[in-house]
């Protein structure tokens, strides 16, 4: 499956234009929106509407959108799939979404962790070669994606969840300076795709 992943567009029309051009050129099967596509929720409906290419877009809130706003957008727009605190299987891929957060522990993961672990176990039993993709806005702690100057500011519970579960990819955002970087936690590939987006074939 060809997937275009992006984060932190923040309502920037140039960033939106870049994503539009990539969609037309790369023709992805799926879009993954890691949050903060708006500035504090301003013009949120028109912004999300401009990302309608007739392709499903898995979406979580960043720290500029609320979970309620994402739920409302998913009800309003057919292309928007709310994956916040949800597990969704598409073919032999399992997507897990936990949005929100800023720095430190991620509350939405704390309440979803047990459900996610069960979903992964069940998925792997049926699809042993299937891939698990974790979508977060906050980056996991102690990676290239969470470093600000000399400090690591990411979520320790995301890192712990990755280490305790069979996660193949973690797509995240939030720290703009670390956009378009890749790292690993064990065998898990960690990516901040930035506002220009990155293509993956999984």
Q: Which helices and strands, and how do they pair?
A:
Blueprint: E1 2-6, H1 13-26, E2 30-33, H2 44-49, E3 57-59, H3 67-76, E4 80-82, E5 86-90, E6 93-98, H4 107-110, H5 113-126, E7 131-136, E8 147-148, E9 151-152, H6 156-164, E10 169-171, E11 181-185, E12 188-192, E13 198-201
Parallel strand pairs: 1-2, 2-3, 3-4, 6-7, 7-10, 10-12
Antiparallel strand pairs: 1-13, 5-6, 8-9, 11-12
- Biggest β-sheet description: 6 strands, mixed
Strand-residue proportion: 25-35%
- Indicate the low-confidence ranges by residue numbers: none
- Mean pLDDT rating: 95
**Share in helix:** 25-40%
Tally of DSSP β-strands: 13
Tally of DSSP helical segments: 6
Structural class: alpha/beta
CATH homology-level superfamily: Metallo-dependent phosphatases
Q: Give the end-to-end Cα distance, rounded to a whole number of Å.
A: 5 Å
Shape: globular
- Shape-level CATH architecture: 4-Layer Sandwich
Total discrete domains: 1
How do the strands line up in the largest sheet? 5-6-7-10-12-11
Q: Give the CATH class.
A: Alpha Beta
Order of helices and strands: EHEHEHEEEHHEEEHEEEE
């Amino acid at each position: 499956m060809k997937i275009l992943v992006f984060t932190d567009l923040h309502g920037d029309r140039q960033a939106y234009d870049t994503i539009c051009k990539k969609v037309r050129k790369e023709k992805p099967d799926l879009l993954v929106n890691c949050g903060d596509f708006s500035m504090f929720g301003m013009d949120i409906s028109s912004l999300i509407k401009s990302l309608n290419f007739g392709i499903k877009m898995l979406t979580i809130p960043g720290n500029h959108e609320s979970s309620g706003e994402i739920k409302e957008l998913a009800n309003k727009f057919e292309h928007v799939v709310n994956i916040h605190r949800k597990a969704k299987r598409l073919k032999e891929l399992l997507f897990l979404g936990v949005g929100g957060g800023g720095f430190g522990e991620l509350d939405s993961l704390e309440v979803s962790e047990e459900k996610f672990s069960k979903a992964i176990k069940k998925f792997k039993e049926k699809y042993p070669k299937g891939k698990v993709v974790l979508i977060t806005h906050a980056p996991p702690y102690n990676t290239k994606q969470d470093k600000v100057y000399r400090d690591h500011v990411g979520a320790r519970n995301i890192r712990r969840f990755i280490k305790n579960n069979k996660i193949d990819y973690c797509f995240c955002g939030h720290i703009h300076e670390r956009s378009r970087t890749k790292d690993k936690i064990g065998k898990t590939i960690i990516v901040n795709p930035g506002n220009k987006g990155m293509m993956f074939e999984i």
